């Protein structure tokens, strides 16, 4: 600048034809200075945006692994889970540090050593944080950045100490990209109620870590520690915000994953509760009917009553296995054999297919009670199963009195058994099932069920 200021104003005036060359020179200098200043600012903003984007991308990628999701979902982690957390996070962060060392300033955004170590401390504790920070910065130490490992380990230790100090670990997940907007509210809460807002602890620590990094770079040799913008100026505020975002964005992404897993878990518990409630409706309904039959038989046919009681014991043993949502069709038919002798036409290939537990008994009972019992001379019930193209078809047909046209619209409302079976199928399969009832008054009724054919691995799902 000084050499430019010593430029001969008269020569410039003669060359350009201006009599007042000082104004032209000062205008050119200001324009050049603005252009030179604008370019580094644009580069800095671009680098900081890329840094936040890389942090968010790594977090989103990790959240796709079920093993990592399970580690996130468990708040009180054992040593194995802490080791998994460190093994999941360190490789990507090591690659980022290496990329920055190999690629030079153009890849400065890839270095997330300080932010990653702090995150591992927040999630894993005061042991995982320092060890993870040390592992991340091994490439930097090899490149003689002597302060990189102590700085990252300190960041991990601070994250672990914050985790240890917070009474409710769930408060950590309240830290987000815009937590700084809650600073006035947290200050008022601290002054009026003497209560700490724990989400402010990661916020203030991130600010302190970035300012401390810049101070170390300024106080020592630049090669000993890396910083994107190691200058005490107004643009340092952008660097601090980028550091906050690089920590808060992964936490927010992972918290959303935890919320989704929590919702899925509650949906599974709700499904199990609904299935248990539906089964508890069927079992007393069936038990009362059977006990009434035993009571009637005891008076005039004790031997038959004894046989019914033995079969009832087998049935009750089966009903006590409430943990089984699905059972092989073979077991369901054995259960029906204890309940009633039926003419069966069964495809052998379908016997190993899995069906919802207690699927057939309520419908067989309806055929017996409403179809055959009112008919003089008795009758028969036929049960047919076939398997075709991944679908299991079950037909239960009786030659009883049938269902009148007036009652057909109400068969799913008035009877406990059929309405219960239909609701259980809807809970288990959604819209991927078919239940149809066709009846001819005086000739009989056919119940047809079509469900997906489940493989044997469903036994592992309870």
Short précis:
Helix content is 62%, strand content 9%.
Structural description of this entry:
The protein is of the alpha+beta class and 462 residues long. It has two domains: 2-265, no CATH class; 323-460, Heat Shock Protein 90 (2-Layer Sandwich), CATH 3.30.565. Helix content is 62%, strand content 9%. The chain is built from 17 helices and seven strands. Strands 2-4-5-7-6 form a five-stranded mixed beta sheet, covered by helices on one side. A hairpin with a 2-residue loop joins strand 4 and strand 5. It is elongated and about 105 Å long. The termini are far apart. 31% of the residues are buried. Residues 1-21, 31-38 and 457-462 have low confidence and may be disordered.
Mean pLDDT: 78
Query: Which blocks of ≥5 consecutive residues have pLDDT under 50?
Result: 1-21, 31-38, 457-462
Number of strands: 7
Give the neighbour order of strands across the main sheet: 2-4-5-7-6
The number of distinct helices, counting runs of at least 4 residues, comes to 17
Which secondary-structure class do the elements indicate?
alpha+beta
Roughly how many Å apart are the termini? Answer: 78 Å
β-strand percent reads 5-15%
Proportion of helical residues: 55-70%
Rg value:
37 Å
